[in-house]
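Human: I'm a chemist; would you kindly supply sequence and structure tokens for a protein?

Assistant:
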Amino acid sequence: MNIADKANSTYWWRINLDTANPQNKPGLLFLLGYSKFQSQAEAINKIDCFCSKVEMLQKHGYIDKATSIEIFEKRGAFPCEQTDIKLIILYKKDFKINPELIGKIDHTIKEFLNKLYTIRNTGRPVENLRPLPEKIKKDDLYKYDAGKFPTAAALYTWCEKMIAGGENRQRVLSYYREYVLKNFSDMEKLLLPKK
């Protein structure tokens, strides 16, 4: 069973269940959901993460089973309705962006939601909303080409993202060491972690 990783989720949502829907358990008023499970990586691209979770809510019928779904972006250590930002509310036939965020929400998210609701409201199956990501071979990520990282800080940031995204820590640290040895000055080599 997957256990929600509340502390490390970027997004969380409250599904306000439609008590008139016979598919819902009697007496159950709402469900909470999170964008990450323990021991699993969340998408590094936060827009893609958001869109994939909305797709999941659609695919599993939660939009139809709910009166509304409130989606929040977590700001503190743990989800909190009072301090987190309510981004969007999904309804059966439409969606509403928090008015405080007008002009601040990425256009990709608005296009995605417009497409979702255009298809939903025609009654056609909702599928292929997001373009498929370009597949990158794992070995292409670990090339030692000079100039791939202009500074040691850029390399360090990339390594952090890879580890946060679920890459094997030892493989990433080994790559870091080899890249520095092949491409950086002697001064930067002094900063290498011990094996």
